[in-house]
Amino acid sequence: MFRFNGVVMPARSTKTPVSFGLDRLTTPIGIALLVTDAEGALRALDWDDYEHRMRELLRLHYGSVDLRDRPAPTAMKTALSGYFEGDLGRLSGVPWRIAGTPFQQKVWTALAKIPAGTTMSYGALAARIETPRAIRAVGHANGSNPISVVLPCHRLIGADGSLVKYGGGLERKRWLLRHEGVEI
């Protein structure tokens, strides 16, 4: 068992390291790291200045991971670039696949359903996934989301409307929300 962001997670043990590709994408808010599997699905998206965090999340979810420089699919990079250029609907075209506990997967899947330009409190998301008393657990799952931006953890805010925690830093969260038209 391991603890990450206050959540106890089962150790993933594999004899052979899981192999993923690693690519980089220049965005207005830094270099995005794109981790993809052999089928071209996004497994992680994080920021180059948070690479250690991303690698730790991958290790917790998959066990031993071998990251090799490999271009992400062109369509994925085009969709992500389109999002950063203002075509907010482009994120829905990015194929992704996640590992994690069933509860984490439920939270992350629900994140993908929060429309661009809107925000939601942790409590509202807990209620949406029919676990209204699991606000803190939703927060912990949100904090260990491996696919930033595409699974839009930046759209979760405090119950009082305040910006709270973002794995890529609050300045990035603020930029992403403003980019999507959210008044902060």
From TrEMBL:
CDD domains according to UniProt: ATase
Q: Tell whether Coiled coil is among the UniProt keywords.
A: no
**The keyword Cell division is annotated on this UniProt entry:** no
According to its UniProt entry, the protein's GO biological process terms are: DNA repair; methylation
**Under which EC number(s) is this enzyme classified?**
2.1.1.63
Name the SUPFAM superfamilies on file: Methylated DNA-protein cysteine methyltransferase domain (SSF53155), Methylated DNA-protein cysteine methyltransferase, C-terminal domain (SSF46767)
Catalysed reaction(s) here are:
a 4-O-methyl-thymidine in DNA + L-cysteinyl-[protein] = a thymidine in DNA + S-methyl-L-cysteinyl-[protein]; a 6-O-methyl-2'-deoxyguanosine in DNA + L-cysteinyl-[protein] = S-methyl-L-cysteinyl-[protein] + a 2'-deoxyguanosine in DNA
- Pfam families under this entry? DNA_binding_1
Spell out the InterPro entries in the cross-references: MethylDNA_cys_MeTrfase_AS (IPR001497), MethylDNA_cys_MeTrfase_DNA-bd (IPR014048), MethylDNA_cys_MeTrfase_DNAb (IPR036217), MGMT_N_sf (IPR036631), WH-like_DNA-bd_sf (IPR036388)
Q: Which UniProt keywords apply?
A: DNA damage, DNA repair, Methyltransferase, Transferase
Q: Name one GO molecular function term.
A: methylated-DNA-[protein]-cysteine S-methyltransferase activity
Methylated-DNA-[protein]-cysteine S-methyltransferase DNA binding domain segment(s): 102-182
Family, per the entry?
Answer: Belongs to the MGMT family.
- Protein name in the entry: methylated-DNA--[protein]-cysteine S-methyltransferase
* Lineage, highest ranks first: Bacteria, Pseudomonadati, Pseudomonadota, Alphaproteobacteria, Hyphomicrobiales
Q: Which gene encodes it?
A: ogt
